[in-house]
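Input record, target 12 of the design panel.
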């Protein structure tokens, strides 16, 4: 296990899995540098992306090439810092050679009904008429869960050990216990400040400029962040699949087999 003085950690997730709230928690790790979705930024805002969010009037951020992100995350300037990188598994699909070396890997999952419904509702709340179309254009080819499972299998084989997997439901129900175990597993030093945060970040995140107008429109980070912090609570019941919009039902059905594989690995 890497020393907590300089542990470098990836959290691989799927959209709408409480991963941004997890980032807010990690702000309280001592001497931490936070990178927010650098590979997903390459996919959505960089010159090599497969899932460009701006189809017209888009100027790619040249910083976010896949080799560029790898170089940033491997830079020697980070050697004496803790580093926490939150990203999506689909962003490195079939690009595993671009993943930065020297990191401990971890995974955060959420039931597909909750994650896809949350994404759908976020788009709908912005007032867009073509919610189905926007959702489909945002999602990766295999919807995120399949890519996340394949990434897990790759990293387990590459590193010779099983990455820790956390279900967001367990995090909501037992935040202190889950975060303590997580920190032990990845090499961070736990403290109770990880359970709470204020309205402003405690440390500056590395995040692309192009993301700002989309944040304003869809409130992705705001809507996915639990106000004030984690408190032990019972998570909300999972809706019945029959109650969901058709496109959400389709996404859930395709994703469930891979969610179930990852959920069986939760520790």
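The sequence produced for target 12 reads:
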């Amino acid at each position: 296990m890497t020393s907590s003085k300089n542990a470098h950690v990836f959290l691989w997730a799927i959209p709408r899995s409480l991963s941004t709230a997890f980032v807010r928690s990690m702000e309280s790790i001592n001497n931490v540098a936070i990178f927010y979705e650098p590979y997903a930024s390459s996919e959505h805002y960089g010159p090599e992306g497969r899932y460009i969010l701006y189809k017209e009037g888009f100027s790619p951020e040249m910083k976010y090439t896949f080799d560029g992100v790898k170089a940033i995350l491997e830079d020697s300037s980070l050697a004496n810092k803790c580093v926490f990188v939150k990203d999506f598994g689909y962003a490195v699909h079939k690009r595993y050679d671009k993943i930065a070396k020297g990191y401990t890997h971890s995974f955060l999952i959420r039931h597909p009904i909750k994650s896809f419904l949350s994404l759908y509702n976020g788009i709908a709340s912005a007032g867009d008429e073509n919610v189905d179309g926007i959702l489909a254009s945002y999602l990766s080819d295999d919807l995120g869960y399949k890519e996340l499972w394949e990434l897990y299998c790759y990293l387990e084989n590459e590193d010779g050990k099983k990455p820790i997997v956390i279900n967001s439901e367990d995090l909501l129900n037992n935040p202190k216990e889950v975060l303590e175990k997580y920190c032990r597993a990845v090499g961070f030093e736990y403290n109770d400040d990880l359970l709470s945060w204020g309205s402003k970040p405690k440390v500056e995140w590395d995040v692309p400029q192009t993301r700002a107008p989309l944040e304003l429109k869809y409130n992705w980070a705001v809507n996915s962040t639990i106000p004030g912090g984690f408190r032990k609570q019972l998570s909300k019941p999972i809706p019945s699949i029959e109650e969901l919009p058709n496109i959400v039902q389709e996404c859930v059905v395709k994703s469930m087999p891979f969610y179930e594989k990852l959920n069986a690995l939760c520790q």
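The beta strands are 8-13, 32-36, 82-88, 104-109, 164-167, 205-206.
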